[in-house]
Amino acid sequence: QVQLVESGGRLVQAGGSLRLSCAASRRTFSSYAMGWFRQAPGKEREFVAALRWSDGITSYADSVKGRFTISRDNAKKLVYLQMNSLKPEDTAVYLCAATSRWIVVNSGEYEFWGQGTQVTVSS
User: Fold this and answer.
1) Beta pairing partners, 121
2) What's the per-residue H, E or C state across the chain?
3) What's the pLDDT tens digit per position in 75-92?
4) pLDDT attached to residue 116
5) Interstrand relation of 46-52 and 33-39 (parallel, antiparallel or unpaired)
6) How far apart are the C-alpha atoms of 94 and 44, rounded to whole Å?
7) pLDDT greater at residue 75 or residue 94
8) Residue 97 burial by Cβ neighbours in a 10 Å radius (0-12, 13-18, 19+)
9) pLDDT (tens digit per residue) in 15-60
10) Long-range contact pairs involving 58-64 (C-beta distance under 8 Å, separation at least 24)
11) Does residue 48 contact residue 60 with C-beta atoms inside 8 Å?
12) Phi and psi dihedrals of 18, rounded to 5?
């Protein structure tokens, strides 16, 4: 029943910044965690960042630590991904995910997924 919609993806040059947004269709959704994943052409989907809703604790993939920041708007059930110092290898479709149950937040076991937004980093 929960639908997720991502926005903000576009073409950007290396070293630039973007902010992605993810909106949930139900404001009353009892979220355990929301996260971001990405998938490049011919590659497996990989974990990027996650936020545990109860306390705002965040997790990041090693490849994006220090460059990306996940944050939330608690009232609106929005989650953001601020991406700085972008590299060509960051090029991918970025997908938002959410879960109402306990999971390992970097595992890909989320219940709900958005359709993705394309981020392209040129060099």
Assistant:
1) 12
2) CCCEEEECCCEEECCCCEEEEEEECCCCCCCCEEEEEEECCCCCCEEEEEEECCCCCEEECCCCCCCEEEEEECCCCEEEEEECCCCHHHCEEEEEEEECCCCCCCCCCCCEECCCEEEEEEC
3) 787 899 999 999 999 999
4) 97
5) antiparallel
6) 12
7) 94
8) buried
9) 999 999 999 887 667 889 999 999 999 999 999 999 998 899 999 9
10) 59/105, 59/106, 61/106, 63/89, 64/90
11) yes
12) -145, 155
C-alpha dihedral sign at 85, 64, 43, 10? negative
Q: Which of 53, 54, 79 is nearest to 68 (CA)?
A: 79
Report the pLDDT value the prediction gives residue 106, as an integer from 0 to 100: 94
Instruction: Tell me the CA distances in angstroms from 95 to 55, 123, one per residue in order.
Output: 22, 23
Q: Is the Cβ–Cβ distance between 69 and 115 less than 8 Å?
A: no
* Token pair listed for 54: 């109860």
Task: Check: CB of residue 12 under 8 Å from CB of residue 18.
Answer: yes
Please provide the size of the chain in residues.
123
For residue 101, what are the CA distances in angstroms to 34, 49, 105?
11, 17, 10
Residue with tokens 């989907």: 45
